[in-house]
Write a structure and sequence with these properties.
It comes from Paenibacillus phyllosphaerae. It catalyses: [thioredoxin]-dithiol + NADP(+) = [thioredoxin]-disulfide + NADPH + H(+). One of its GO terms (molecular function) is thioredoxin-disulfide reductase (NADPH) activity. One of its GO terms (cellular component) is cytoplasm. By secondary structure, the protein is an alpha/beta fold. It has seven helices and 19 strands. Helix 1 runs parallel beside helix 2, helix 1 packs parallel to helix 6 and helix 4 packs parallel to helix 5. The chain is elongated and about 65 Å long. It starts with a strand and ends with a helix. It binds flavin-adenine dinucleotide. Flavin-adenine dinucleotide (FAD) binds next to helix 1 and helix 6.
Length: 315
Protein backbone atom coordinates (compact mmCIF):
# COMPACT_ATOMS: atom_id res chain seq x y z
CA UNK A 1 0.00 0.00 0.00
CA UNK A 2 1.47 3.33 -1.07
CA UNK A 3 0.41 6.91 -0.67
CA UNK A 4 1.24 7.59 -4.30
CA UNK A 5 2.30 5.50 -7.26
CA UNK A 6 3.85 7.20 -10.26
CA UNK A 7 3.54 5.30 -13.53
CA UNK A 8 6.36 6.09 -15.96
CA UNK A 9 9.92 7.35 -15.60
CA UNK A 10 10.30 9.97 -18.30
CA UNK A 11 10.99 13.60 -17.33
CA UNK A 12 7.38 13.97 -16.10
CA UNK A 13 7.33 10.94 -13.81
CA UNK A 14 10.83 11.50 -12.46
CA UNK A 15 10.18 15.16 -11.69
CA UNK A 16 6.99 14.17 -9.90
CA UNK A 17 9.05 11.57 -8.02
CA UNK A 18 11.64 14.16 -6.94
CA UNK A 19 8.95 16.48 -5.60
CA UNK A 20 6.88 13.80 -3.86
CA UNK A 21 9.93 12.13 -2.36
CA UNK A 22 11.23 15.46 -1.08
CA UNK A 23 7.83 16.07 0.49
CA UNK A 24 8.32 12.79 2.35
CA UNK A 25 5.50 11.01 0.50
CA UNK A 26 7.69 7.97 -0.31
CA UNK A 27 6.30 7.44 -3.81
CA UNK A 28 6.62 4.20 -5.68
CA UNK A 29 7.73 4.72 -9.27
CA UNK A 30 7.01 2.09 -11.90
CA UNK A 31 9.43 2.21 -14.79
CA UNK A 32 7.50 0.46 -17.53
CA UNK A 33 8.79 -0.74 -20.86
CA UNK A 34 11.18 2.18 -21.39
CA UNK A 35 12.99 3.15 -18.16
CA UNK A 36 13.97 6.82 -18.47
CA UNK A 37 11.42 7.42 -21.22
CA UNK A 38 11.86 8.74 -24.73
CA UNK A 39 15.03 10.74 -24.06
CA UNK A 40 16.94 7.50 -23.56
CA UNK A 41 16.49 6.92 -27.28
CA UNK A 42 18.27 10.10 -28.30
CA UNK A 43 21.79 11.44 -28.14
CA UNK A 44 22.42 15.15 -27.47
CA UNK A 45 19.71 17.20 -25.74
CA UNK A 46 20.53 20.86 -26.27
CA UNK A 47 17.39 22.58 -25.05
CA UNK A 48 16.98 21.34 -21.49
CA UNK A 49 17.83 24.33 -19.28
CA UNK A 50 20.87 24.07 -17.05
CA UNK A 51 23.21 22.34 -19.48
CA UNK A 52 24.99 25.03 -21.53
CA UNK A 53 26.98 22.42 -23.47
CA UNK A 54 23.99 20.09 -23.85
CA UNK A 55 23.67 16.68 -22.25
CA UNK A 56 23.17 13.17 -23.59
CA UNK A 57 19.54 12.08 -23.19
CA UNK A 58 20.35 8.89 -21.22
CA UNK A 59 22.63 10.88 -18.86
CA UNK A 60 19.94 13.46 -18.20
CA UNK A 61 17.46 10.75 -17.30
CA UNK A 62 19.95 8.85 -15.15
CA UNK A 63 20.59 12.08 -13.23
CA UNK A 64 16.87 12.67 -12.66
CA UNK A 65 16.47 9.11 -11.39
CA UNK A 66 19.39 9.47 -9.00
CA UNK A 67 17.92 12.73 -7.72
CA UNK A 68 14.57 11.05 -7.00
CA UNK A 69 16.30 8.08 -5.31
CA UNK A 70 18.32 10.43 -3.15
CA UNK A 71 15.11 11.67 -1.53
CA UNK A 72 13.67 8.21 -1.01
CA UNK A 73 11.62 7.39 -4.12
CA UNK A 74 11.28 3.63 -4.58
CA UNK A 75 11.59 2.18 -8.07
CA UNK A 76 10.15 -1.02 -9.46
CA UNK A 77 10.46 -2.52 -12.88
CA UNK A 78 7.19 -3.56 -14.44
CA UNK A 79 4.52 -2.80 -16.94
CA UNK A 80 1.15 -1.65 -15.63
CA UNK A 81 -1.42 -3.86 -17.31
CA UNK A 82 -4.52 -2.37 -15.75
CA UNK A 83 -5.78 -0.02 -13.07
CA UNK A 84 -8.99 -0.36 -11.10
CA UNK A 85 -10.23 3.11 -10.28
CA UNK A 86 -13.70 2.03 -9.17
CA UNK A 87 -12.80 1.89 -5.47
CA UNK A 88 -10.21 3.31 -3.07
CA UNK A 89 -7.38 2.63 -2.75
CA UNK A 90 -6.70 2.32 -6.47
CA UNK A 91 -5.44 -1.11 -7.50
CA UNK A 92 -2.83 -1.72 -10.17
CA UNK A 93 -1.98 -4.99 -11.87
CA UNK A 94 1.70 -4.81 -12.66
CA UNK A 95 3.54 -7.34 -14.80
CA UNK A 96 6.15 -9.03 -12.65
CA UNK A 97 5.02 -7.23 -9.47
CA UNK A 98 1.48 -8.46 -9.00
CA UNK A 99 -1.13 -6.24 -7.38
CA UNK A 100 -0.17 -2.86 -5.94
CA UNK A 101 -2.37 -0.30 -4.22
CA UNK A 102 -2.18 3.44 -3.74
CA UNK A 103 -4.30 6.28 -2.47
CA UNK A 104 -3.24 8.50 -5.36
CA UNK A 105 -1.84 7.92 -8.82
CA UNK A 106 0.27 10.00 -11.14
CA UNK A 107 0.12 8.89 -14.75
CA UNK A 108 3.14 9.90 -16.80
CA UNK A 109 3.24 7.20 -19.45
CA UNK A 110 4.05 9.50 -22.37
CA UNK A 111 2.95 9.34 -25.99
CA UNK A 112 4.80 7.25 -28.53
CA UNK A 113 5.56 8.70 -31.94
CA UNK A 114 4.17 6.65 -34.78
CA UNK A 115 6.70 5.26 -37.21
CA UNK A 116 6.25 4.15 -40.81
CA UNK A 117 7.52 0.64 -40.10
CA UNK A 118 9.92 0.62 -43.06
CA UNK A 119 13.43 -0.86 -43.15
CA UNK A 120 16.27 1.20 -41.62
CA UNK A 121 13.87 3.57 -39.89
CA UNK A 122 14.20 2.68 -36.19
CA UNK A 123 17.92 1.89 -36.52
CA UNK A 124 18.57 5.44 -37.70
CA UNK A 125 16.67 7.35 -35.03
CA UNK A 126 19.24 9.87 -33.79
CA UNK A 127 21.29 9.32 -36.99
CA UNK A 128 19.05 11.38 -39.26
CA UNK A 129 15.60 9.93 -38.56
CA UNK A 130 13.58 12.04 -36.15
CA UNK A 131 10.01 12.44 -34.94
CA UNK A 132 10.53 15.87 -33.38
CA UNK A 133 11.38 18.97 -35.41
CA UNK A 134 11.59 21.20 -32.32
CA UNK A 135 14.11 18.80 -30.78
CA UNK A 136 16.29 18.04 -33.78
CA UNK A 137 15.80 20.75 -36.43
CA UNK A 138 18.82 22.65 -35.20
CA UNK A 139 21.11 19.75 -36.14
CA UNK A 140 20.19 20.13 -39.83
CA UNK A 141 21.37 23.65 -40.57
CA UNK A 142 21.95 24.14 -44.29
CA UNK A 143 20.89 20.55 -45.09
CA UNK A 144 18.11 19.06 -47.19
CA UNK A 145 15.43 17.36 -45.12
CA UNK A 146 12.41 15.19 -45.84
CA UNK A 147 9.19 15.43 -43.84
CA UNK A 148 6.80 12.50 -44.18
CA UNK A 149 3.11 13.09 -43.49
CA UNK A 150 0.04 14.84 -44.76
CA UNK A 151 -1.60 16.28 -41.66
CA UNK A 152 -1.33 19.60 -39.87
CA UNK A 153 1.66 18.50 -37.84
CA UNK A 154 3.58 17.57 -41.01
CA UNK A 155 2.88 21.04 -42.47
CA UNK A 156 3.89 22.69 -39.21
CA UNK A 157 7.09 20.65 -38.93
CA UNK A 158 7.96 21.38 -42.58
CA UNK A 159 7.50 25.11 -42.10
CA UNK A 160 9.46 25.09 -38.86
CA UNK A 161 12.32 23.12 -40.40
CA UNK A 162 12.80 25.67 -43.19
CA UNK A 163 14.37 27.90 -40.52
CA UNK A 164 17.36 25.56 -40.62
CA UNK A 165 17.21 23.49 -43.77
CA UNK A 166 18.23 24.49 -47.27
CA UNK A 167 15.19 22.59 -48.59
CA UNK A 168 12.35 20.60 -47.04
CA UNK A 169 10.71 17.94 -49.20
CA UNK A 170 7.21 16.98 -48.07
CA UNK A 171 6.54 13.34 -48.88
CA UNK A 172 2.99 12.02 -48.66
CA UNK A 173 1.55 8.78 -49.93
CA UNK A 174 -1.53 10.44 -51.41
CA UNK A 175 -2.09 13.37 -53.73
CA UNK A 176 -4.50 15.02 -51.27
CA UNK A 177 -3.54 15.91 -47.74
CA UNK A 178 -5.48 15.76 -44.48
CA UNK A 179 -3.98 19.06 -43.31
CA UNK A 180 -6.26 22.07 -42.98
CA UNK A 181 -6.26 24.48 -45.91
CA UNK A 182 -4.59 27.23 -43.94
CA UNK A 183 -1.69 24.96 -42.93
CA UNK A 184 -1.28 23.68 -46.48
CA UNK A 185 -1.34 27.23 -47.85
CA UNK A 186 1.32 28.28 -45.39
CA UNK A 187 3.57 25.43 -46.52
CA UNK A 188 2.85 26.12 -50.21
CA UNK A 189 3.77 29.78 -49.78
CA UNK A 190 7.11 28.77 -48.30
CA UNK A 191 9.66 28.74 -51.12
CA UNK A 192 11.92 26.26 -49.25
CA UNK A 193 9.18 23.60 -49.19
CA UNK A 194 9.00 21.27 -52.19
CA UNK A 195 6.45 18.50 -52.69
CA UNK A 196 6.77 14.85 -53.46
CA UNK A 197 3.17 13.66 -53.34
CA UNK A 198 1.63 10.31 -54.18
CA UNK A 199 4.86 8.63 -53.06
CA UNK A 200 4.95 5.68 -50.66
CA UNK A 201 8.04 5.57 -48.43
CA UNK A 202 9.76 2.18 -48.84
CA UNK A 203 13.06 2.40 -46.97
CA UNK A 204 15.33 4.86 -45.21
CA UNK A 205 18.64 4.96 -47.04
CA UNK A 206 21.63 5.34 -44.76
CA UNK A 207 25.40 4.91 -44.74
CA UNK A 208 28.01 4.83 -41.99
CA UNK A 209 27.53 8.56 -41.31
CA UNK A 210 23.75 8.35 -41.07
CA UNK A 211 20.79 9.04 -43.31
CA UNK A 212 21.38 9.90 -46.96
CA UNK A 213 17.85 9.66 -48.32
CA UNK A 214 14.48 7.98 -48.54
CA UNK A 215 13.49 5.38 -51.09
CA UNK A 216 9.91 5.90 -52.28
CA UNK A 217 7.56 4.42 -54.84
CA UNK A 218 5.80 6.74 -57.22
CA UNK A 219 2.23 5.47 -56.89
CA UNK A 220 1.30 6.67 -60.37
CA UNK A 221 4.15 5.13 -62.37
CA UNK A 222 5.10 2.38 -59.94
CA UNK A 223 8.74 3.48 -60.29
CA UNK A 224 11.03 3.51 -57.27
CA UNK A 225 13.32 6.46 -56.64
CA UNK A 226 15.59 7.75 -53.89
CA UNK A 227 15.07 11.27 -52.62
CA UNK A 228 18.41 12.39 -51.26
CA UNK A 229 18.39 14.13 -47.88
CA UNK A 230 20.34 14.26 -44.62
CA UNK A 231 17.30 13.93 -42.42
CA UNK A 232 13.92 12.20 -42.49
CA UNK A 233 11.33 13.61 -40.10
CA UNK A 234 8.36 11.32 -39.54
CA UNK A 235 5.30 13.46 -38.78
CA UNK A 236 2.41 11.02 -38.81
CA UNK A 237 1.21 11.50 -35.25
CA UNK A 238 1.60 10.07 -31.75
CA UNK A 239 -0.19 7.42 -29.73
CA UNK A 240 -0.72 8.33 -26.07
CA UNK A 241 0.05 5.37 -23.79
CA UNK A 242 -3.34 5.15 -22.10
CA UNK A 243 -4.61 1.75 -23.24
CA UNK A 244 -4.02 0.16 -19.82
CA UNK A 245 -6.57 2.57 -18.33
CA UNK A 246 -9.45 1.26 -20.39
CA UNK A 247 -12.26 3.78 -20.50
CA UNK A 248 -12.09 4.82 -16.88
CA UNK A 249 -10.63 8.30 -17.32
CA UNK A 250 -11.78 11.02 -19.65
CA UNK A 251 -9.68 11.15 -22.82
CA UNK A 252 -9.90 13.16 -26.03
CA UNK A 253 -10.74 11.60 -29.40
CA UNK A 254 -7.16 10.39 -29.87
CA UNK A 255 -6.76 8.91 -26.38
CA UNK A 256 -4.85 11.73 -24.64
CA UNK A 257 -5.83 12.15 -20.99
CA UNK A 258 -7.85 15.28 -20.34
CA UNK A 259 -6.77 17.36 -17.37
CA UNK A 260 -8.63 20.25 -15.79
CA UNK A 261 -7.07 23.39 -17.34
CA UNK A 262 -4.22 24.79 -15.28
CA UNK A 263 -3.96 21.63 -13.15
CA UNK A 264 -2.92 18.00 -13.48
CA UNK A 265 -6.28 16.68 -12.25
CA UNK A 266 -7.96 14.04 -14.35
CA UNK A 267 -11.65 13.20 -14.33
CA UNK A 268 -11.16 11.02 -11.21
CA UNK A 269 -10.11 12.73 -7.96
CA UNK A 270 -6.78 11.38 -6.74
CA UNK A 271 -5.52 10.55 -10.22
CA UNK A 272 -3.20 13.06 -11.83
CA UNK A 273 -1.62 13.16 -15.27
CA UNK A 274 1.50 14.87 -16.52
CA UNK A 275 3.84 14.93 -19.48
CA UNK A 276 3.14 13.89 -23.03
CA UNK A 277 0.27 11.58 -22.08
CA UNK A 278 -1.87 14.69 -21.58
CA UNK A 279 -0.09 17.10 -23.92
CA UNK A 280 -1.15 17.25 -27.55
CA UNK A 281 0.79 20.41 -28.21
CA UNK A 282 4.23 20.92 -26.69
CA UNK A 283 5.62 17.41 -26.05
CA UNK A 284 9.02 18.58 -24.79
CA UNK A 285 11.15 17.30 -21.94
CA UNK A 286 10.96 20.58 -20.09
CA UNK A 287 7.16 20.89 -20.39
CA UNK A 288 6.87 17.25 -19.26
CA UNK A 289 9.10 17.99 -16.26
CA UNK A 290 7.11 21.15 -15.47
CA UNK A 291 3.83 19.30 -15.53
CA UNK A 292 5.40 16.54 -13.40
CA UNK A 293 6.05 19.18 -10.75
CA UNK A 294 2.41 20.30 -11.01
CA UNK A 295 1.17 16.73 -10.62
CA UNK A 296 3.30 16.18 -7.51
CA UNK A 297 2.07 19.38 -5.88
CA UNK A 298 -1.56 18.60 -6.78
CA UNK A 299 -1.12 15.07 -5.47
CA UNK A 300 0.39 16.32 -2.22
CA UNK A 301 -2.55 18.65 -1.68
CA UNK A 302 -4.96 15.81 -2.40
CA UNK A 303 -3.24 13.46 0.04
CA UNK A 304 -3.17 16.10 2.77
CA UNK A 305 -6.87 16.73 2.40
CA UNK A 306 -8.31 13.38 1.41
CA UNK A 307 -6.15 10.46 2.53
CA UNK A 308 -8.23 8.06 4.59
CA UNK A 309 -5.48 5.61 5.46
CA UNK A 310 -3.20 5.87 8.48
CA UNK A 311 0.10 5.91 6.61
CA UNK A 312 2.22 5.72 9.73
CA UNK A 313 1.01 2.10 10.11
CA UNK A 314 2.14 0.90 6.70
CA UNK A 315 5.31 2.87 5.96
C1 LIG B 1 14.24 10.63 -30.37
C2 LIG B 1 13.64 11.74 -29.51
C3 LIG B 1 14.38 12.87 -29.26
C4 LIG B 1 13.87 13.88 -28.46
N1 LIG B 1 14.63 14.98 -28.21
C5 LIG B 1 14.16 15.94 -27.38
C6 LIG B 1 14.95 17.07 -27.05
O1 LIG B 1 16.07 17.23 -27.56
N2 LIG B 1 14.42 18.00 -26.21
C7 LIG B 1 13.16 17.86 -25.67
O2 LIG B 1 12.74 18.71 -24.89
N3 LIG B 1 12.38 16.80 -25.97
C8 LIG B 1 12.85 15.84 -26.79
N4 LIG B 1 12.06 14.78 -27.11
C9 LIG B 1 10.70 14.72 -26.56
C10 LIG B 1 10.78 14.23 -25.11
O3 LIG B 1 11.54 13.05 -25.05
C11 LIG B 1 9.39 13.98 -24.56
O4 LIG B 1 8.62 15.16 -24.67
C12 LIG B 1 9.45 13.57 -23.09
O5 LIG B 1 10.28 12.44 -22.92
C13 LIG B 1 8.07 13.27 -22.53
O6 LIG B 1 8.23 12.89 -21.21
P1 LIG B 1 7.15 12.02 -20.43
O7 LIG B 1 7.71 11.89 -19.06
O8 LIG B 1 5.82 12.59 -20.61
O9 LIG B 1 7.10 10.60 -21.17
P2 LIG B 1 8.17 9.60 -21.73
O10 LIG B 1 9.55 10.15 -21.78
O11 LIG B 1 7.58 9.10 -23.00
O12 LIG B 1 8.16 8.41 -20.67
C14 LIG B 1 7.06 7.57 -20.54
C15 LIG B 1 7.33 6.54 -19.45
O13 LIG B 1 6.14 5.81 -19.21
C16 LIG B 1 6.44 4.44 -19.12
N5 LIG B 1 5.24 3.67 -19.48
C17 LIG B 1 4.50 3.71 -20.61
N6 LIG B 1 3.48 2.84 -20.55
C18 LIG B 1 3.56 2.22 -19.34
C19 LIG B 1 2.82 1.24 -18.66
N7 LIG B 1 1.72 0.68 -19.20
N8 LIG B 1 3.23 0.83 -17.43
C20 LIG B 1 4.30 1.39 -16.85
N9 LIG B 1 5.05 2.36 -17.42
C21 LIG B 1 4.69 2.76 -18.65
C22 LIG B 1 7.64 4.25 -20.05
O14 LIG B 1 8.37 3.09 -19.70
C23 LIG B 1 8.42 5.53 -19.77
O15 LIG B 1 9.24 5.34 -18.64
C24 LIG B 1 12.55 13.76 -27.92
C25 LIG B 1 11.80 12.61 -28.19
C26 LIG B 1 12.33 11.60 -28.96
C27 LIG B 1 11.50 10.37 -29.25
Amino acid sequence: MYKAIIIGTGPAGLTAAIYLARANMKPLVIEGPEPGGQLTTTTEVENFPGFPEGIMGPDLMANMRKQAERFGAEFRTGWVNSVDTSKRPFTLQVEGQGELQAEALIISTGASAKYLGIPNERENVGRGVSTCATCDGFFFRGKKIIVVGGGDSAMEEANFLTRFASEVVLVHRRQEMRASKIMQDRARENSKVTWSLNRTPLEVVAGPMGVTGLKVRNNESGQEEVIEASGVFIAIGHTPNTKFLGRQLEVDETGYLITKPGTSETSIPGIFACGDVQDTKYRQAITAAGSGCMAALDCEKYLEGHAVHDWSQSL
